[in-house]
C-alpha cells in the first residue's frame, strides 16, 4: 500500500465524484425548487447512459460530446414530465410523491431491462485504457474528460442561475414561493423549466458516466441513493455543495473500497448521511435554515 | 361498526378460514404472502398512517427479525417460538435508535425517510460482510422432514404458514383498530397533523413518536421471522433491500393510509396483481423479463394519481360502509 | 392579590435582534389581562416564551409560584397553562369533536370521559352541531372557537389567547367576547390575551400591558392606558382618540 496507490485512488474518487456531483446537482435543483422527492433520479441517469452508449455504437459519437444532445433531449422530457404528470403532485404528501416516482422508476428500469437485458454494456472508447502520468500517479484519461465535462456543465448551470432572468426567477421560487407568485412569476412554467434543467443535468451526468462505468439497469437504485446522499451531505440549495458533496462521497467510497472491501464502500456514505442529518442538517455548504 | 360491515367481515373471515380446503399449494402460497404484507403493512400503517413518520427502511426490521430468529435456530437450536422474542427486542432496539436520532434532532419528512434508508442499507452491507450471519452467500435453515410436525418451530407446510399469517394479519388489524380509538391513537393523529399544536395541548411528541416506532419495529420483526422460516433462507441483499422496504409500504398506501382495513385491502389487491400481470403479459406474448414489472409500476402510478387516499376509502363509499371507522 | 403568572425581567434575543427586552409584569389570578402594542412589538414572542416554545435569554417566569421558563410547551401545558395560536392550527383531518378530545385527553386518560368533556365545551362554544364535521371544513370564526375549546379542554388555570379576534366581524367578536367573559366569570379562569382589536380589549380586560419594540411602556387599567400619551403616540392613534372621546 504505497502512497502512490492511495493517491491514485483519491484522484479517481475526486474525478468520479465530480460526475456524481453533476447528477446530484440535477436532484438538488429539482428537490430544492420544485420540492419533489425524485426517486426516479438514478433511473434517468441510467437511461442517459444507454442513450450515450447507443449513440456511440451506432454513430461513433463520443459520450463526452453526446452529452449535449442528450441533455437537450432530457430537458424536453423533464419539462413535459413536470407539466403533464408531476405538477399535480407538487405540494402533496411525501409518500404520495414517493409512490408516483417509485412507480415511474420501476417502469423505466424494467423497460430498460426488457430492451437491453441485464448485462452490462461497456463502451470501448479509444481512450478507455489510457492514462496521464503525473509524477508517480496515473490518472485515467476517461475520468479526466468526464470530470472536465461535469465541471463545464455545472459552470454553465451556475452561470444560468446567476445571470439569466429565468434563472433568477427560479431562485425566487425556491426562496419564497408566495412572493414569487405575488410578483407575477408563472410558477408552473418555471417548475417545468426547473425539472427540465434537473433532468438535463442527469442526462449529461449519465452520458459522462459511460466512459467510467458500464451501462446497466442495476445501477439505477444505487445512483438514486447516491444522489440523495450527496445532496444532503453537500447541502440542499447549494450548487457548489452538490459538486463538493460528490467529491467527498466519491473519495470516501474510493478509499473505503481500497482499505476495506469494494462491497463496503457505501457504508461510509450512509454513515456520513446519518452524521450530516443529525449534526449538520444543512450539509457542508447549505444555508443554515 | 355498522351491521352491514359486520356481516361482510364475518363472511370474509369464514371464507379465509375455509379456503385452504379448496385451494392448491400455489394459491395458498399467494395467500401467505398476502397475509404477510397485510401484517407488516399494518405495522407500517401504525407508524406512518397514525403517527405520521415516514419510514422507507422498514426492511431493517423484517431483516433483523428474520436473522435473529434464524441464527438462534441455526447456531443454538432455539426455536422461533422463543426466538421471536429476541427478534422483536432487537428490532425494537434498532427502531428506538432510529427514532431517537430522528426525533431528538428534529429530522423530519424526507430527511427522516432518508435516515431510515441509510440505517437499512448500512445494515445490509454489514450483514453482507459478517461471516457469522452467512454473509452475502446467505443463511440456510435446514429442513428436516422428521420435524415437520413441530409447528412451534415453524416447521411445516404452507398450510401452517397460511393460518399463522391469517392469525397475524387479523390480530394486527384488531390491534390497529383498538389503538386508533385509544388515547395514544388520538395523540398520534394530533402529532401527525400538527406537532407544534399537539405539544401546545400537553402531548409529549418525542415520547409518543418513540412509542410508535418501537411498536412498529417490533411488530414488523415478527413478520420477518415468519418469512425467514417460510423460505428457510436469508440473504442480506433481499432481507434488508430497499425494494423490500418499498414492497412493505405499497399495500398500506395503495389500500389506504391511516385506515384500519387499508393495508389489508392493499395486500389483497397488490400481491395477486403481480401474479395476474405475469399471466397477462405472458398471454400477450410479452415474455421479456421486466414486462410484468413495467405494468406493475404503471398500475402504482395510476392508482396513486386517481386515488391518493387509497382504494379502501373509495371502496367503502361504494359498498355503503362509510361510517365503518370512527 | 395572588398572581398566577409572574414574568420577571424576561428577555428574548434572536441572533442579535432583541425581540423582548426585560419585560416584567404580574397577572392576578382570575383576571383578564391584555397585552397590546404595535406590530413587531414582541407580543407573540413574549407569549411563545411564556408557553415554552422558546427559553428566555434572561429573566424568570413563575406560574403559580413554580418556575416554568425553559420548559417545553407540553410540560407548560400539563401544568395548567394553555395557549392558542395567532394563525389557528386545527387538526385538519380530524373532526371538530376529535380535535377537542385530543385536548381533553391530557388529564382524562379515558377516551369516553374525554369525549363527554369535549362535548360539554363544544356546547359552551356553540360548536356542538358541527362536532362531526372535519375541522378543515370550518369557517374562520368557527375555527377560532374550536381553538379556544380545544385549549380549554386541557383544563388550564391560565389561558393565553394570541389575537383570537383577528379576522372576525364585529358581531362575531362580540359573541366570542361574551363567551370568554362568561368562562372567566363562571370558572375563574385567568386569561392573558394579545389583542389588536380594541373593542375586545376594552370589553374584556381589567388590566393592560403595552409593549413597543420589545419593552413595556405602560401598564394599568384600560381607561388609563388609552389616555396615556406615550401609548397613544406609539400605537393607538385614531382608535384611542375615538374611544377616549366617548
The low-pLDDT segments of chain A are: none
Percent of residues in helices of chain A: over 70%
Instruction: Work out the helix count of chain C.
Output: 9
Briefly note the CATH topology name of the largest domain in chain C: Rossmann fold
Strand/helix succession of chain A: HHHHEEHHHHHHH
Which architecture of chain A per CATH?
A: Orthogonal Bundle
Structural class of chain A: mainly alpha
- Strand pairing plus helix content of chain C: what structural class? alpha/beta
Uncertain ranges of chain C: none
Proportion of residues in helical segments of chain C: 40-55%
Averaged pLDDT of chain A: 90
Q: Give the count of helical stretches of chain A.
A: 11
Query: How far is it from the N-terminal to the C-terminal residue of chain A, by CA?
Result: 43 Å
Shape of chain C: globular
Strand order of the largest sheet of chain C: 6-7-8-3-9-10
Strand % of chain C is 25-35%
What's the multimeric state?
A: heterotrimer
- If classified by CATH, what would the architecture of the largest domain in chain C be? 3-Layer(aba) Sandwich
CATH topology of chain A: ABC transporter involved in vitamin B12 uptake, BtuC
Features:
heterotrimer, A: 289 residues, mainly alpha, ABC transporter involved in vitamin B12 uptake, BtuC, two-stranded antiparallel ribbon, 11 helices, 2 strands, 3% strand, globular, B: 326 residues, two-stranded antiparallel sheet, 14 helices, 1% strand
